[in-house]
Amino acid sequence: MTDRNVLTPFERRVADQMERYVDRASDPKPASEIADAAMRPTSLWSRVRHAPRSRHLLLFGLAAVLLVPVAAAGILSRQAVTTPGYAAIYVRRNAADVNSVDIVAVRPGGDELLLRNLPDPIQGHKLVLGLGAMVSDSGWLALGAVNGDNTPSSLILLDLRDLASRPWVVDGATVDIGPSWGPTGLLAAKTAGSDLVVIDPDAHTTRRVGLQGYEPSPDGPSILWTADGRGFIGSTSTGGYVTIPLDGSEPVPGVALAPYRRGVGGQFGPGMATLQVCAEGMGVECSGGNDGRVELVDTDGWHTIWQPVGGDHVLAADFAKGGGYWLTLDHGHGTQVVLTRIGGTGPDLTTTVDRAADWRSVGVLNEFPDHSAVVAYFVDRGGSQFRTIIAPLDGSPPTLHPGALAGFVPASDLATPADGRYAAPQESMPTTGRPYALPSLDALIADGLFEASGTAVLGKGSHEAVPGDTAVHSYAVNLDRSGTAAAVFLECIGPSSATVRWQSSAFTSSCIANGGLNENVGAAGPITVEATGDTWWRVVIYAQ
């Protein structure tokens, strides 16, 4: 039986990408502790050392946050822009000074404007960026913070509508579970204890809300408000749901109201429905079989919403803002990614972007509130920051942007420096799509910490994809060293699945999930890999 994570496939990919930012922080241990609570799966090395007897999904990274030092900005004059529509808010390291952070507004067409630059530190606190950065509909930016000893204990809020606003430090609010803005403009965050703190930024007030023994989030990564903003959806020790009222009254079993959703990227849709990518190695067994389809799971059962078309297969699936679903599809033998919105009340929308060779998995992260563009997140194999694509839905060219997407604000509400001007993004999209690829086998072993942590690598094998070779081949992976108890790790990416066989057992990966699969094989022995010639794969046999 396969162990199953509570995160969506795309959230697992986001978690995968975030680890390398924590490594660059002044002290990665607190970030690891934060990530352990926020993104429940364990690290690759932990999974290697404590692998269960059953197959399970391995991720290379787990951190849900990025530690970057920042500080208070000086008082500036207010200057409001008059640009119509919405702007996406990004938070990212300054290119010339890694000890400062830029807050940037980006239009749907990709033009960027620097709103603020914050140097280090803010009242003795360091900011936590990444998934901890989020902006309210009214323009309040919230960022997690750590104390001088790197203990996650505070949030810092900044009013983007006023350049004269000073950062407001809210002590006692953490990002071990992602804070969330509610539908009435309040921000909820987990305390260091077992309660929530609810913040009213306009009134500059806070209050505690007891969880009365229930878990503060049913999906792990973030707090989930009810649609009316009067409570939260928590979980019981047995995996059920409970509605926790904001006013402190008795919790109500089940989900009294639908969850509040500010965009795509969350675990749950209307009625606490979920989406499942039905492919081997994704951690689920779908009712219609693991043939690459996408199924909606709700109280009425399983419902197929998409099936593979042609040579395309789905990389990620999420609920769309206002109804329907966003899918990202592998297209053109890995040279392109299709972003498509299906279902809902509006027309289906599709945009296609060329893919760089180092892009791994790609998923829709959010959608502009006016449906003018969609923001997609991709996992790459290098660089100092993660990146997103803004793809206009009117057919205009997509653009590339580094940094953490915090959300969207009406552009006319933002305050900008008097000399502020929108300009073209500094980075360029690929001009020609290139097939995906994997790092070298030696790099994979180093990243996986097999040899670095003293775990003996008993055997290894790899295959470089041959474009156009759609035939299924059988490849032998032999042992270089002897060993008693062993396990095998497979990472692959390509247009079709890969199967690892040994003795009378086997497991299969769909080769679309970022990360890989790991399974105990008992006594060490040779294995074979069955895959098409146009699929990349890497295999490591290691001692338990």
Which features does this protein show?
544 residues, mainly beta, Methylamine Dehydrogenase, Chain H, Jelly Rolls, 2 domains, six-stranded antiparallel beta sheet, 39% strand
Question: What is this structure, in a nutshell?
Answer:
Helices cover 7% and strands 39% of the residues. With 544 residues, the chain is mainly beta.
Q: Which sheet architecture does the biggest sheet show?
A: 6 strands, antiparallel
Mean pLDDT equals: 77
Q: Which outline best applies?
A: globular
Q: State which percent range the strand residues make up.
A: 35-45%
User: What is the architecture of the largest domain at the second tier of CATH?
Assistant: 7 Propeller
Helix content: under 10%
How many helices? The count is 4
Highest-level CATH class of the largest domain: Mainly Beta
Describe the structure.
The protein has 544 residues and is mainly beta. It folds into 2 domains: 65-74 and 81-413, Methylamine Dehydrogenase, Chain H (7 Propeller); 437-544, Sandwich (Jelly Rolls), CATH 2.60.120. The chain has 4 helices and 37 strands. Strands 2, 6, 7, 8, 9 and 10 form a 6-stranded antiparallel sheet that branches. A 5-stranded antiparallel sheet has the order 1-35-32-37-30. It is globular and about 65 Å long. Mean pLDDT is 77; it is low at 1-83.
